[in-house]
Design a protein that fits this description.
By secondary structure, the chain is mostly beta strands. It is 1% helix and 53% strand. It is built from 1 helix and 56 strands. The strands form 14 sheets. It has a 6-stranded antiparallel β-sheet, with no helix packed on it. A 4-stranded antiparallel β-sheet has the order 1-56-55-54, with no helix packed on it. A hairpin with a 4-residue loop joins β44 and β45. The longest helix is centred in the N-terminal third of the chain and has 5 residues. It is globular, with a radius of gyration of 26 Å. The N terminus is likely disordered.
């Protein structure tokens, strides 16, 4: 098998394919794959893969609530006028996919973006937008104003604190608030001190604005948490939401040794805090609950659940005593006296649902289910749609899906949840969650083992945590094997008659530093409930997908290496490059199909090293995660071009 372990870029290129175009057989025959029958393709555009109206933060400025969009393009801020009860203003924020932080100084709104991390000023009277600061970070995670009119921004991934003075235009980088961590997750500023919630290993830093001194004031009993996630000042008391236990820390800023910790039952994240006088209100996720306590209380009181499964990332009071809160699709007003909720009408020509970057795809009969932000989009597979596209909303993000037996099985972030939806349905059901004691949060792969009636879901651990898990749903409960791949996350799963193949990732929870350099591949035996073998078949650090084709196991790495292994002998048969990025694979007979974000390629799988062929180029895909191809199992593929879903018919 001469050269069987060589890794070489061998994609045979063709030009970009327009919608409806057919790639000639001759072009495919010229690709040089001696084992392949020539394949032609006809591409049809099915329209936006997923469309949503999604808001990530907001701030009240006088009689307006300003909302900031995220994960949809173009990125905008929009003002809801409380008197006119409608959106009256919008402004475009250029060059960024979304906004995390927002606050105001006078009539100017300041927003911080992600990828790239920038700070913008929006004049709410003229709607002029000005970039005022390059944060030199991937994410400007939060933005808060101080009483003296300065803007402070906390960043990821180096946990820095920036200060911007709108009066002079001067920017100051105050450096890392924690030299060993990645997030300033939230902050709040006084005239003298900036309090920074740190993650992904929980910390709480008091930064002295005059001296630059940093003091970590997080109590010792909270050191094993992941985030000081939400910060708020209630008079002389600092109120901090702690993740992933939804605890509330209340610290007397005059003497930080004086504090209380309030427990929140049956929830995981504190996502919004506000106060009036000595009364503090906060919201939790995933339940969407609203709690209240007075400073000095030892336990909170449940007020209600304004919007189930909601994430209230910012909330405050109106002059009439009602609460306002930012929701994913807009905002709500909540009357504390009547316990009634009013959804704000966010309809506007500039704020119609907008294409978002898809997270996952699933072929389910006559439809494609597209995972996105807070729900899934359902699109007809036909060029002339058999039904109108519709959205099924729910809390969370479907990171991977598979259809089997008329049911779509979903692995949902956060909290490592398993949801199902009838393939022809319009509602999801939460079936189970991985036990919180396992500290898992983000599903990486979901598949059904039809021989045994099992659902296999791999997960990565919570922020700052180690060791992902294999989780097996047997119809009654999840059984979890955390750390089954030593020092790695289980990134991909593939069932076999007697067990399951596991592909690893050197990345553990976000905010951790890998301790290994090569992804592991293992076989978990159902009978012994242990690993039968463990190998390192690739130089790559993440095995994003695995497929068993006959007696050959094929794996795809994140950096674009396709490899084949004989699972009986664990011999690596071949390794080839298929592009700059590796994605999830589709299989038709003995062929595997994939995309690297720009090109759709195919390989015929045998024990001999193949030459991949390009079926389409110039796709310019925009994924929120791993590129993906799905198939009907016969002659049709589905993937994306830009933000649109495309159908690829093979001939």
């Amino acid at each position: 098998m001469s050269g069987s372990l060589s890794r070489r870029a061998v994609l045979a290129g063709v030009g970009a394919v327009a919608a409806g175009a057919v790639l000639p057989r001759a072009a495919q025959a010229a690709s040089g794959d001696p084992l392949a029958e020539p394949l032609g393709v006809a591409i049809s555009d099915l329209g936006p893969a997923s469309q949503v109206l999604n808001f990530g933060n907001g701030v009240r400025v006088g009689n307006e609530i300003w909302f900031a969009t995220r994960q949809i393009l173009p990125t905008r801020v929009a003002a809801y006028d409380l008197t006119e009860r409608r959106i009256t203003k919008t402004a475009l924020i250029p060059g960024v996919p979304g906004i995390w932080g927002i606050d105001a100084v006078g009539t100017d709104v300041f927003v911080s973006s992600y990828s790239p991390g920038l700070l913008f000023r929006v004049d709410t009277r003229t709607l002029d937008v000005t970039q005022v600061l390059d944060l030199r970070q991937e994410v400007g995670w939060n933005t808060k104003a101080s009483p003296d009119g300065r803007i402070f921004v906390g960043t990821y991934p180096s946990a820095r604190l920036w200060e911007y003075d709108p009066a002079t235009g001067r920017a100051t980088d105050h450096g890392r608030m924690d030299p060993d961590d990645t997030y300033v997750r939230d902050l709040v500023a006084t005239d003298t001190t900036v309090y920074c919630g740190i993650g992904s290993h929980a910390g709480l830093v008091a930064y002295d604005r005059a001296t630059g001194t940093r003091t970590d004031i997080l109590p010792a009993e909270l050191r094993d948490r992941t985030f000081g996630a939400v910060c708020h000042l209630a008079g002389d008391h600092l109120v901090v939401g702690i993740s992933p236990t939804a605890e509330i820390l209340v610290i007397d800023t005059r003497d930080t040794s004086r504090y209380q910790i309030l427990k929140t039952p049956d929830d995981s994240f504190v996502v919004g805090i506000t106060s009036r006088d000595d009364e503090v209100f906060y919201t939790t996720r995933p339940s969407g609950s609203l709690y209240r306590f007075r400073l000095g209380d030892s336990t909170p009181t449940l007020v209600g659940v304004p919007v189930a499964e909601a994430s209230n990332v910012r909330l405050g009071f109106l002059d009439d005593g009602r609460l306002w809160a930012v929701q994913s699709a807009g905002g709500i007003l909540y009357d504390l006296d009547t316990r009634t909720t009013e959804a704000l009408d966010m309809s506007s020509p500039d704020l119609a649902p907008t294409p978002e970057r898809p997270m996952s795809l699933c072929h389910a009969g006559d439809r494609i289910v597209v995972g996105g932000t807070l729900g899934v989009q359902v699109v007809s597979t036909e060029v002339t749609p058999a039904f109108p596209t519709f959205r099924v909303p729910f809390g969370g993000e479907a990171k991977d899906m598979e259809a089997h037996g008329g049911v779509v099985h979903m692995g949902v972030y956060t909290l490592a949840r398993y949801l199902t939806m009838p393939a022809d349905g319009r509602a999801v059901t939460e079936v189970a969650r991985v036990d919180a004691a396992q500290e898992q949060t983000r599903p990486t792969s979901v598949t059904v083992d039809p021989r045994r009636g099992l659902v296999l879901m791999s997960t990565e651990p919570d922020y700052g945590r180690w060791e992902g898990a294999l989780n097996i749903w047997d119809g009654q409960r999840f059984r979890s094997w955390r750390g089954i791949l030593p020092d790695q996350t289980v990134q991909s799963v593939c069932p076999d008659p007697h067990g399951v193949f596991l592909g690893g990732s050197i990345v553990n929870g976000y905010g951790t530093t890998p301790t290994t350099t090569r992804a592991k591949l293992a076989y978990f035996d159902y009978r012994t409930e242990r690993l039968a073998w463990l190998v390192e078949p690739t130089e790559g650090g993440v095995i994003v997908d695995l497929k068993l084709i006959g007696r050959v196991l094929v794996g795809m790495t994140r950096d674009g290496e396709l490899f084949a292994l004989d699972p009986r002998t664990r011999e690596v048969l071949w390794r080839v490059d298929v592009g700059a990025v590796g994605g999830k694979l589709a299989v038709i007979d003995d062929r595997v199909f994939g995309t690297d974000g720009g090109r759709l390629w195919t390989v015929r799988v045998t024990r001999h090293e193949p030459t991949p062929s390009v079926l389409a180029d110039g796709l310019n895909q925009s994924w929120f995660g791993t590129p993906e191809v799905v198939t009907d199992g016969a002659r049709t593929l589905f993937t994306t071009r830009g933000l649109n879903l495309i159908r690829v018919d093979l001939s």
